Amino acid sequence: MIIAILQRVTSASVTVDKRLVASIGKGILVFAAVGPDDTKKDAETAASRVVKLKMWPDDSNAGWKKSVQDIGGEILCVSQFTLYASTKKGNKPDFHGAAKPGMAKSLYDHFVCKVQELHGQDRVKNGLFQAMMEVGLVNDGPVTLEIDTNPPKRLAADPVSSLAAGLAQQGSEQGTEGVSVSESIQDSSKGLHRGLLE
Q1: pLDDT: is 94 or 16 the higher one?
Q2: DSSP state string for 173-196
Q3: 47 φ, ψ (degrees, to nearest 5)
Q4: Active-site annotation holds for 144
Q5: Residue of 38, 52, 29, 30 lying closest to 150 (CA atoms)
Q6: What is the rounded CA–CA span in Å between residue 35 and residue 99?
């Protein structure tokens, strides 16, 4: 999945070797990382979400009503493979979860091109891939949001409904011997309810 950290900013810039590479005014600073299983579809989905995500209030100051498109803001994209760091073991981060540089650059470039296509090339700036960058920003809020193109699926709110659906599917695929699917669901549901009450 492509991971992106979005920061609402009043200004942001990227400097490499003391040379200003890119800068924006009011808009979004995007840190993006590519995973080994990502595709062009993931890059396009992430780009669309960056452009359409509502991060600003409207004219009546009601929150989360306007996107960067709505306010005519700018976007600065910065590649950051460290978003895939694993810190589960020891004190040294592990970056094996990130895509290899060649693949990552190809999909990251596709992501940036898609953002430019959706929002306008003149309003979308880019950092320098694989460079040691100094990123400056003034966070507005502060507001920092995370998006990814493959969020974990939520469990069903009602465990009985979830169980019933699973048994119904199993029954339709395998059939039942001596007991109907509906009876199996009823018996299992009663047992689950008793377990929850105990």
Answers
A1: 16
A2: HH--SSS-HHHHHHHHHHHHHHHH
A3: -60, -45
A4: no
A5: 38
A6: 5
Tell me, what amino acid is at 13? Answer: S
Give pLDDT tens digits for 29-38.
999 999 999 9
For 40, the 3-state DSSP assignment is helix
Phi, psi angles (nearest 5°) of residue 70? -65, -35
Whole-number Å distance between alpha carbons of 88 and 97: 12
Residue 91, H or E segment: none
pLDDT at 149: 85
Q: Are 44 and 149 in contact (CB under 8 A)?
A: no
pLDDT per residue as tens digits for the range 163-197: 555 555 555 455 544 444 445 445 544 544 444 44
Which residue of the set 45, 82, 149, 176 is catalytic? 82
CA dist 159 and 189 (Å) reads: 9
Question: Is the pTM above the cut of 0.85?
Answer: no
For residue range 41-58, list pLDDT tens digits in order: 999 999 999 999 999 999
